[in-house]
Each structure stands twice: as structure tokens, then as C-alpha cells.
Design a protein that fits this description.
By secondary structure, this protein is an alpha/beta fold. It has helices at residues 19-33, 56-70, 108-123, 150-153, 157-161, 193-206; strands spanning 2-12, 45-46, 73-76, 88-94, 97-103, 127-135, 168-176, 179-180.
Length: 209
Amino acid sequence: MKIVQEVSLISVGSFEESRDWSIIRTEIRDAISLIVHPPGTSSFTINPKRHGNGVKPIKEACMIALRDRFTWRLETPINYATKSPGKVDATKVIDNYLFALEWETGNISSSHRAVNKMVLGLLRGVFLGTALVLPSRKIYPYLTDRIGNYEELEPYFDVWRAVQIQEGFLAIFVIEHDQLDSNVPTLTKGTDGRALVWKFLLLCRVRNW
């Protein structure tokens, strides 16, 4: 899978120029590049069936790579000093702070909640850096209907850029397929995605992770 756009939505302070961000950015990019379909290939090919592919198997493949190859923690509960808005998909410890990553699998409302969750963490001083991964409009038609995507979220960027924080960082990674092919299997939806995850794990073993 490829990244077609990367946006620094919020960058206050020196984190974007730090070695920590350089390492984390490389790990995120590497984990995304390792998502392949069909299993055993070297790229990500999607069946262009309208709304025919699930999103969770793609996310879970990235989460496995972050956890097993780069020692990220998954499904991290966060104390926001108020009622928690929910767990974070993946986190990495940076000194006494956390870097948080969310991968969008819901609708556009879910995308707004994900960004708000991370911005709240920046405001509370819980996160030093954050990132959101979401699909481009180009892959959108082939995924679960009404999945959140970059083009729908972009008009609201000025709202989050206006948030007043002393230090913090929020990046957005936009992902897309490498190729289209109606002959490849569709990505399964819901819990059926576990089958693809197991195949991905086997691929990881072949690559000697």
C-alpha cells in the first residue's frame, strides 16, 4: 500500500524537526508499505468492486506490523483527566510522553471523533505527537460505504489548526492502493478479516520478521 499525501495539520514546537519524529514517521511509513494484497505479493492490489472491500483487515495488518516489528502498543487506554473518549489504536512511548496513531475504519463522523480525540490529548499534555491514517477519495469507492476519507475531512482543517496549544504535533497520512484488478479477491468485511490477518502473519514469517 502506498502513501499519496502527508500533511502536518498541527505543528507547534520542535517535534516535527526532532529525531523522534524522524524515527516514528519512518516506522509508520514502513508499516503501511508492508500491507500487501493478495497475500504473498509485493504490492497492494484491490478489487474495484463498488463498496466491496472491508477496511479492518487493512488496518489490522498495519497494527500487527507496528506492534511486532516496531514495538508499538495497541488499543491503549488513555487518561485525559476527564471522561476518556476511548482507546487509541496504537501508541509509542517518547520519554515521558506518548505518540498516538489512529487508523480510520468508520464514517466521516468517526474521522472527526478520531481527530478530536488526538487534539484533546495534545491540549491535556498527554500526547506530544499524533497521526491519523485515512483513505484517499480514489480508493474510497471500493471500500465500505461512507468510509471517512481525506477529501471529506479537509474542509475542517482550519478548525483544528486554530486550536491553541503550547506544544504538539498532528500529522495526516493518506493511503491508497497500488493497483486495481477485478480478478483479486475482495477484502473481507467485519470479523471475516481475521482470515486475512492470519495470512499476513504467515507473510511476515516468510519475510523473517
